[in-house]
């Protein structure tokens, strides 16, 4: 039996030979141990085999696979198979060698890792490898990991535009078809939301609909607004020539992007100041946006709107159908009430259509601080 000798500190000589691609020397060693090159005793402290170490030398890899019957799914101590390591390193020639050896069955379950990932997932940052796997190995871009995330969605969420373009081309641009949605009904557009270059590509070149919804009926446009993604929103507003408040861009509850963006003051300012969004726009229940802001106690957003209308917040045009003012709606938020009374000179005796003032509302709600 070969003794365990070390080169360069803790690196076994055997592994050093493999990593240097010294095929003749390796053959000599393999012969000396009767071909048992993959036995546990010949692994290093990271659980790596000579196959892991030889991965950048295709002649050595071919020898180990074809003549020593080395298993391409052998893992290191972290559970990473050699096959997946090869894909993640973008070693196309070595990968091709392995694919040939298993007759092209690279996507079979036996070649998934413990997280359910395929070589396609691992190769995601290497476009030449991805192209090979899709075009020559017929890998399915909707293959999922154990969490059910399709590969194409993973690509979009990582913002890998060149890889995404490769896949869109491969399916003739049908990227928004139902078959390319995940189990939550999300499209690649939803997944790419934080990558403006990918979003622009999908909207401008793939004609993706910004009102496409997930299974909960949330349009992409509204999701962008609710996440406060101002740059992405600007891209979409430009794409529809500023018609962001048209009814076709309302959701099933009659809400606009203004309603969805309510907790993001930079987005609200943009929509009001640059898109001329009406602060009295209502949802399907007839609640004006400015009243929703007051009822939620969003003081900074309210201040933004008051400035925009030169302080005329108590004018009749800013009352709802019940004659209520923002003061009525803000009754549970003392900081908002103080602002409206002290800085906007709102009259606490202003009644609604039923004759109720904020004093009545505060008393009936037991809001003694107010």
Largest sheet: 2 strands, antiparallel
* CATH level-3 fold name of the domain at 140-208: Serine Threonine Protein Phosphatase 5, Tetratricopeptide repeat
- Assign an overall shape: elongated
Ends: how far apart? 87 Å
**Using DSSP, what is the number of strands?**
2
Question: What is the CATH architecture descriptor of the domain at 140-208?
Answer: Alpha Horseshoe
Give the C-alpha Rg.
Answer: 31 Å
Q: Considering the protein shown, what is the CATH homologous superfamily of the domain at 140-208?
A: Ankyrin repeat-containing domain
Number of helices: 21
Taken in chain order, the helices and strands follow as EEHHHHHHHHHHHHHHHHHHHHH
- Helical percent range? 40-55%
Beta content: under 5%
Structural class: mainly alpha
Regarding CATH, which class of the domain at 140-208? Mainly Alpha
Low-confidence stretches: none
Mean pLDDT: 84
Strand order of the largest sheet: 1-2
What's the quick description here?
The chain is mainly alpha-helical and 370 residues long. The chain is built from 21 helices and two strands.
Summarize the SSE layout with pairings.
Blueprint: E1 6-7, E2 11-12, H1 13-19, H2 23-32, H3 50-53, H4 58-66, H5 82-88, H6 92-101, H7 119-122, H8 127-135, H9 151-157, H10 161-170, H11 188-191, H12 196-204, H13 220-226, H14 230-239, H15 257-260, H16 265-273, H17 289-296, H18 299-308, H19 326-329, H20 334-342, H21 358-365
Antiparallel strand pairs: 1-2
Please give a structural write-up.
The chain is mostly helical and 370 residues long. 43% of the residues lie in helices and 1% in strands. It has 21 helices and two strands. The protein has helices spanning 13-19, 23-32, 50-53, 58-66, 82-88, 92-101, 119-122, 127-135, 151-157, 161-170, 188-191, 196-204, 220-226, 230-239, 257-260, 265-273, 289-296, 299-308, 326-329, 334-342, 358-365; strands at 6-7, 11-12. The protein has a two-stranded antiparallel ribbon with strand order 1-2.
